[in-house]
Amino acid sequence: MKHQKLLLLCGVLGILVSAAFLKSSYVIPMLAVLTVLLFITGIKYVYSFSATKYYKIWLAASFIFVIVISIGLFSKMIRPVSAETQTAAAQVVDTAAIAEQSAAAAAAKQPENLQATEQSTKKLKRERLDTPLKDRLISFLGIFILILISWLMSVNRKGIKWRPVIWGIALQIIFGLIVISDTAGAFFFNVVDGAVGQLLAFSEEGAAFVFGKLAYGPVDERGLKQGMFFFFAVLPTIIFFSSLMTLLYHIGVMGYVVKFFAKIMQRTMKTSGAESLSAAANIFVGQTEAPLLVKPFVSRMTVSELHAVMTGGFATVAGGVMAAYVVFLKDFIPNIAGHLVTASIMSAPAALAISKIVYPETEESVTAGDVKIHIEKPDANMIEAAARGATEGMTLMLNVAAMLVAFVALIAAVNFCFEKSSDLINAIAGKSQYAVSLSPDTIAQVKEGDTLKIIKPTKSIELKIEEINSAENIVKVNNRITEKLTNQKFEISRNGGVIISGENLNTTGGVLFVNLSILFGWIFAPISLAMGVAWKDCMVVGRLLGEKLILTEFIAYLNLSDILRNGFETTSGAIEFLSQRSAVIASYALCGFANFASIGIQIGGIGGIAPNRRADLARIGLRSMFAGAIAACLTGNIVGIFI
Asked: How far, in Å, CA of 539 to CA of 640, rounded?
């Protein structure tokens, strides 16, 4: 029976794909094929034919057929360009052409309009991502790669029940179809982005009341143009959103939302009531708060359920810190608030799916049938709830600030060791990444302390001359140059004025240069490629995935923001920018608490609820963290299919 039900599910998914885009000419033949498919399935379901190996092959072929056709439809129909949009695009191009012809005058008279035009052009390009079918198929095939990795991690491969896995991925696809379609998607993203934007404005008002001009960014006319903007403007959003979520839980709004998602996962995936409820709560609250909803059952949970609870915490993020990530990325990724909310929702069923592969259920759960949702209300009224949420938010904000100080310092320390080791290896090989070769005439004119500017097509580099070796026509600079340059343009300045310019600068480069970013890129680039990230971006996204795992997602999102703002340097020294598709996939894959520090947080938090399970939590902590990271990447795969 399970094979017939699976095939019925495939047919329903295919119909949903078609129904999401009724304006396509492909819908009629697609529905005809699916009708025949469902008719055949219905016959086999009624007469209960045995599932022979040939039937299983036909089943697998039908499933792949539906997915491939669906992806093909999306490649034709996703983000179609309406006549109005084409007209708007033409107008933007015309405006850009006119602006180019009179750049100086336009820049002087209407800088704001030009900036708006540029942003409008970028937005149109981003909304109409023309992703080739092969790239979408890579994201689709990457799902099986991540499942294979999870299967290899499994503690009991023979005990895996595939229903929660298939339904977990199906729920992700269904939600992706609903949210990323033109009609429902536009409504969802506009509403979520508008709501989050307004809430961030409220948070800004509160921060400005306390911190004054320090609460505004360096480009805001209301700000001081400098100072501690991150601490006084970004981190206070955590306080406000923590207070808001606590208030919504107190008045019962979030209870209904959590129950809705929990019921969907429980009925489809057949997971227990307790683990389904915890996974649903993780969409909105943190990794230690969600288990409180199932507090009476934690001490009696099976090990598989505990693993699922922990994995759900690692695969999602809390609403409070999500607001900070929106602040980081809102200027670079359109509708980022909608994307991050979508990521958290889609990762909840993914967490249960991957968890049941890594640690299958072999025991009998006390909540196998159902569990009634009960949210404790420790506060007397809404005012006390808001106050408690603010206090907890302040604690979280200070923890985040302390974590950033510690981890950024530790990164600098580890990178120092790696880079000095690289310098030693290069010195043994007779090469120095601090040495710059210049002509004898140039060497004769420079002095220590002069500024050397290496002029490159993509990005110029300014260095200080610290030592001069006239015998070898070499100067040593204050920072390493990792690339080999030949006959490069340069300028040498003294006291703010250029004294020498030329085109005969040379560097030796080096035989090796390694730091944490490069190591992370090497290790996690294959995972990035499996998610459908463009090959040129794989090392960068891989680096971010590694930073999330080792250093926390907060640092990874900070670095993603910096990369989107300033670009990244390739091995050849060129400056490039992440494609919009790679940036969106990365934002989904990073949206989770899967890092080593969170293992201790969960053991302490969940262990406080049920001290008798602390040993079990410690035993499965590392495995569940990796499962949570895979679940978040799986969400990136699903999104990669549709954008």
From this structure: 17
Q: Which two tokens stand for residue 310?
A: 């922990």
Cα–Cα dist 170/166, whole Å:
6
Q: Given phi > 0 = left and psi -120 to 50 = alpha, else beta, which region is 271?
A: beta
Q: Is 56 exposed, middle or buried (0-12, 13-18, 19+ CB in 10 A)?
A: exposed
* pTM, two decimal places: 0.71
Q: Which residue has the tokens 């809430």?
A: 199
Residue 212's nearest CA partner among 200, 198, 197, 228 is: 228
410/429 Cα distance (integer angstroms):
29
CA nearest 632: which of 340, 351, 323?
351
pLDDT tens profile 466-495: 999 888 889 999 888 877 888 889 999 998
Q: Are 371 and 294 in contact (CB under 8 A)?
A: yes
Q: 180-189 — which CB contacts under 8 Å span 24+ positions?
A: 180/78, 180/639, 180/642, 180/643, 181/20, 181/21, 182/21, 182/79, 182/80, 184/20, 188/338, 188/342, 189/335, 189/338, 189/339
Give the number of other CB atoms < 10 A from CB of residue 117: 19
Distance (Å, rounded) from C-alpha 154 to C-alpha 624? Answer: 11
Tell me if residue 468 falls in helix, strand or coil. Answer: strand
- Selected residue with higher pLDDT from 120 and 64: 64
Backbone dihedral angles phi then psi of residue 335, each to the nearest 5 degrees? 60, 35
Residue 441, burial from CB neighbour count under 10 angstroms (0-12, 13-18, 19+)? exposed
